[in-house]
Specification:
The protein is an alpha+beta fold. The protein has a 7-stranded mixed sheet with strand order 2-3-1-10-4-5-6. The longest helix is centred in the middle third of the chain and has 9 residues. The protein is globular. The termini are close together.
Length: 176
Amino acid sequence: MTTDGGGWTLVLNYNHLGGTNNLLTVRNTDLPLQGSTILGASSEVGTPTWGHAGNSMMNALNFTFVRFYGITGNHGRVIHFKTNQSNLISYFKTGAGIINITNLQSTFQVLPGHTAFIPADANAGFSNRGDLAMTEIPFYRGGNYHWSIRGQGSRWEADDVPANSSQNTYHQIWVR
């Protein structure tokens, strides 16, 4: 609770064990808890730490900033940034529409440890994903760098594109 002045609420937490492709948990009555912060330490599937807020839960929250954190065993880069882009916030609350990538690039603020290429190099994003708006590749650089949590059914990616579930990945989204 000290990052960037604190006050953040965890709304997405997936510490994915490489080589598995477990289903996501959409939470509409509670939020995920923070579990292990060690990449690939263990599977958290089926625990209170695995999952993400659905659109109805996101819509019930009053927030103006979204913070992303992501790492993978595929490389050493770290995704760690925040944004107050209203279009992104609306997309995460409703699951309808698409993130305005140009606006995301102009509003994101790097947080400690950020070494990733996205969102600065993002050039597209998936649209109209409903409860999967935060997980189903909301921003990416085609063929290079993705934010994906079981995207297209099997892609676990953090600033890379292995296009499968082979790597350990750790994704978090926080709001305040």
